[in-house]
Specification:
The complex is a heterodimer of chains A (194) and B (80). By secondary structure, chain A is mainly α. Chain A has 6 helices and 2 strands. The termini of chain B are far apart. The chains are: A mainly alpha (194), B alpha+beta (80). Chains A and B meet through α1, β1, α2, β2 and α6 of A and α1, α2, β1, β2 and α3 of B.
């Protein structure tokens, strides 16, 4: 697969020169994993056309909207799941926090459009770690820290809880990271995320 | 320095998209962020999204290079 030749300093400098200001450039290359990182989904949905026609990327836009609507449905499931957890562990708050954090981490896997995009290596490391520990971790969570009636939560689809993170703290933070990462690669914006 | 409005930025960038080399790979380009909403400040940057045509990839070369260097890094660290 040929790498596109224009994504270099010259291209960005040309854009920066005509605009008279800094440029943050983000790129989508087509394929099954085009939505790697939520930043691309956000950018695609909110972009206004400056070159080409919108209909040419309608299939990507449709994908992006599907991700969003899936997220909305999952938020309902999250609310329901959280309610159950809260009822079950109302008297043992520390377990609730611990369990939620682990659940969110588990649910991050295999959902590239909402995965933390700070660095691909983090993703690789997390994926391999969870691949081996997921089953035992899940069993530990649901068999030993809460009542048996909460075991139904193991069937909550992966990705459910993450949408709530996406819509709150992760969205802005990850957007900044994604943009900074790209800028870092191509020398546009060397400021680290705040 | 003027406030970057969407229309002005689109107008300024128009010649860039006409370059044949870029047209060969770029399917679509758009502006997002504050400029697209016409809420930019004087010092705001311009957020540009480009979608490549089928068969093109924009994956940074340094990513592959960095990953290829990792085993070497481990080896040299353990060796010395």
């Amino acid at each position: 697969m040929p790498s596109f030749a224009f994504l270099n300093e010259l291209f960005l400098l040309e854009l920066a020169e005509v605009c008279g200001r800094e440029i943050s450039l983000m790129c989508i290359w087509q394929g099954h994993d085009w939505a790697w990182g939520n930043v691309r989904v956000e950018a695609l949905i909110s972009s206004r056309t400056i070159y080409g026609t919108r209909s040419d990327v309608e299939h990507l836009h449709s994908d992006a909207m599907t991700f969003l609507y899936d997220g909305l449905k999952m938020l309902d499931l999250v609310a329901e799941a959280l309610g159950k957890i809260r009822n079950l562990v109302a008297t043992v708050q520390i377990y609730e926090v611990c369990k939620l954090r682990i659940l969110i981490l588990l649910l991050c896997q295999n959902r590239p459009h909402i995965r933390n995009s700070s660095t691909p290596l983090n993703g690789l490391r997390a994926r391999s770690a969870f691949k081996s520990s997921e089953r035992s971790l899940t069993r530990w969570i649901f068999n030993h820290t809460i009542t048996p009636s909460a075991r139904c939560l193991t069937h909550v689809p992966y990705g459910v809880l993450l949408e709530s993170v996406l819509s709150s703290m992760a969205w802005n933070q990850m957007s900044r990271q994604g943009r900074w990462r790209f800028g870092k690669y191509y020398g546009i914006n060397s400021n680290p995320p705040q | 320095m003027l406030i970057p409005t969407f229309d002005r930025m689109r107008q300024l960038m128009a010649p860039v998209w006409q370059v044949e080399e870029y047209q060969r790979d770029i399917l679509w380009a758009g502006v997002f962020g504050s400029v697209s909403r016409n809420r930019a400040k004087v010092t705001s940057d311009v957020d540009i999204l480009i979608v490549l045509k089928d068969g093109c990839t924009g994956e940074p070369v340094d990513l592959h290079e960095s990953m290829l260097c990792l085993p070497l890094l481990f080896l040299t660290n353990s060796f010395f």
